[in-house]
Amino acid sequence: MLRLLQAEFADVTISKIRFLESEGLVTPGRTASGYRKFSAADVDRLRYVLAAQRDQYLPLKVIKEHLGAIDRGLSPAAAGPPVAPSSLPQTPGQPVADDFGAAGTELRLTREELRSAAGVSAELLGELESHGLVVARGNHYDGDAIVIAKVAADLAGYGLEPRHLRAFRTAADREVGLIEQVTGPRRTEQTGELAALTVRLHTALVRSRLPRP
Amino acid sequence: MLRLLQAEFADVTISKIRFLESEGLVTPGRTASGYRKFSAADVDRLRYVLAAQRDQYLPLKVIKEHLGAIDRGLSPAAAGPPVAPSSLPQTPGQPVADDFGAAGTELRLTREELRSAAGVSAELLGELESHGLVVARGNHYDGDAIVIAKVAADLAGYGLEPRHLRAFRTAADREVGLIEQVTGPRRTEQTGELAALTVRLHTALVRSRLPRP
DNA sequence: CTCAACCCTCGACCAGCGGTTGAGGTCCCA
DNA sequence: TGGGACCTCAACCGCTGGTCGAGGGTTGAG
Predict the structure, then answer these.
(1) What's the pTM?
(2) Mean pLDDT, chain A, as a whole number?
(3) Contact call for A213 and B168, based on CB within 8 A
């Protein structure tokens, strides 16, 4: 069976297969005396693993998850290729990464810098400020303001204007209030962790309540 | 510009970017005094690199080839996912993390499976249900329920119990209500996009309102 | 029964990737 | 003119994905 796979994958060795087994990617049967006995299904599985490594460069951890998904009757989500650069309208992107750790020095943008970084009109920005969505700290704005302004601009494209977004502000305020009740008003190690958790909770709740596809 | 990318990719650091430059993946301009000066195109390029790493697990060597191909006007060959072994019932995948795209077949877990997947006590799960945080759909639970239950368990470690989390439920309901006002009660292409946007808005708002480090 | 050719396990070791760290120095503007 | 942000370069590091070898059992041909 080793020869069989070697026909297809040049660099497979016994030790590699043993290693893959030790990582839980295959679990061949055993003979009475302890020799491995590979079924056709085991060989298919190995083929899948080796192909995923060679052709998709996937790390074993991810391949293992895929196999797990396949076992449970799902098919692994194959992330498409990222959007090529130099196509400018990048805005509708991934949700913001859940990083609430202590950022280094904060970005300090002037109002004009913020406007151009987010690509929003002065008018929209004004509205966002008057509804308390974007706030300046001593006449400078930080990186979150960029994200907020960009998203607000996108939402405007769906007919949602700043005034419709006030509820988000109050929800966020309440969320932060809750966090501060737990960790106190000063920023600590826990503050970021807690924020990451609550935001995850929020995200999952929203998703779970969306109409089913 | 570092902060700009950090909004999208949590773990980018200055040293990482310098490393990427040393590997020839970006070549930002320099000021007279030797400081790096990143053009919008450079930032796009970095975005591409980081997205490829995070979402496709591509090694830098491969990403570099892709970039080279793009520069020469080609589009990078994206290897499709390998053929699944032993062709089990192929159903579209489980939504990963913050993916609001049209999920295919949902995960369907029994209560007990959910409990063990999330690692929570029957008691906690009961409370979560009675507060409407976790809901069964015809006595099965989906993947979001796992996330919700796990996070709730973590939050319990901070003294936040299910009853403290009701506000999250109502906030999520309102958010979904708003989305449905725009896209209608049926799930469409837009529903997911809009949800991703609002969740991003929420996240950025929370972060912006956290006490400064 | 014996011997060669396999197979097993387990722990030590290893190379490369993808960065991080720190020392030593420059730049710049408040 | 002080301090914070930036520079370079070399050393270091942790993790992944294995390989190697010692020590020992199994199998089948002769």
Answers:
(1) 0.56
(2) 80
(3) no
